[in-house]
Design a protein that fits this description.
274 residues; 2 domains; single chain; five-stranded mixed beta sheet; alpha/beta; Rossmann fold
């Protein structure tokens, strides 16, 4: 803890686009367009420039403006999560709307295992847009069951000027959304059987509150589990997306009779086309 406090005390703020000198090097930050505050880093020293991209956002991201342009680089270290392929060009909002409508009609619930930062806020935005357009029921209960996602959402709302969405859309991300507080409230939510949409972490179902929701909802064919993010091999999420009919949760095997979908179009990474 002492080491962490000493490290935090050394953190400073550097505006994007303005160079900072560290010894003989000049360092400049460029918005990466991936998550709120994400930056690419240019290090200029000895007449050469090294650029480290960090995670790069996509040009048509739901929340963030497109990545800024770096003037030049002698050495470029760049992420390439989707460097060899392009994102599906389907309309993720329309697709999610279809899933929610069909699930609610049959009396089921939709579970969205989500990354807490970036993805959860994009899902809230899409669900609010679907409600506003009358494409899903206006009174459909929405729950955000992740303390980290709730905190991150408040940060996105506080820094709404950095987003590509309107200030009003940012301010209303959590309108009529229940932010689930403690674990007891989360467990009570699990026991409720009426139709609803739950966003919960972790995004690959490797841990977190999403596990007890998954345990409760997966055995019921009325429900729909939607993974809106990349699933690493060996995770529960990857197994479910791959068609597993049972998964081990909290030491016991749980039958999977709910429908499982993977919406890759929600990815926040740049692809081969940018």
């Amino acid at each position: 803890m002492a080491d962490a406090k000493r490290a935090i005390a050394r953190i400073g703020v550097a505006p994007a686009g303005r160079g900072v000198r560290v010894g003989d090097a000049r360092i400049e930050f460029t918005p990466a367009g991936h998550l709120l505050g994400a930056m690419s880093v240019s290090v200029c020293a000895n007449g050469r420039t090294l650029v480290f991209s960090g995670d790069l956002g996509r040009g048509d991201d739901l929340l963030m403006p497109a990545p800024g342009r770096v003037a030049q680089a002698d050495v470029l270290l760049i992420e390439s999560t989707y460097g060899n392929r392009c994102h599906p060009r389907d309309n993720v909002q329309a697709h999610l709307g279809e899933i929610v409508r069909a699930t609610v009609r049959r009396g089921g619930s939709v579970l969205l295992p989500s990354f807490a930062v970036g993805r959860a806020q994009a899902l809230l935005l899409v669900l609010q847009r679907l409600k506003a357009a009358g494409e899903i029921p206006a009174d459909l209960p929405l729950f955000l069951d992740s303390p980290m996602a709730s905190t991150a959402t408040a940060l996105y709302q506080r820094h709404r000027k950095l987003l590509r969405i309107t200030p009003r859309e940012a301010a209303t991300l959590t309108d009529d959304v229940t932010l689930v507080a403690g674990p007891e409230a989360s467990e009570r939510l699990t026991r409720q059987r009426w139709p609803k949409v739950i966003i919960s972490a972790s995004g690959m179902a490797t841990g977190g509150r999403v596990l007890h929701h998954l345990k409760a909802l997966a055995p019921n064919p009325r429900n729909h589990i939607v993974f809106p993010g990349f699933q690493v091999g060996g995770t529960r999420g990857a197994a479910l997306v791959g068609g597993a009919r049972e998964v081990k949760i909290h030491g016991e095997y749980v039958a999977v009779k709910a429908t499982v979908s993977h919406l890759e179009g929600f990815s926040g990474h740049a692809d081969a086309d940018g």
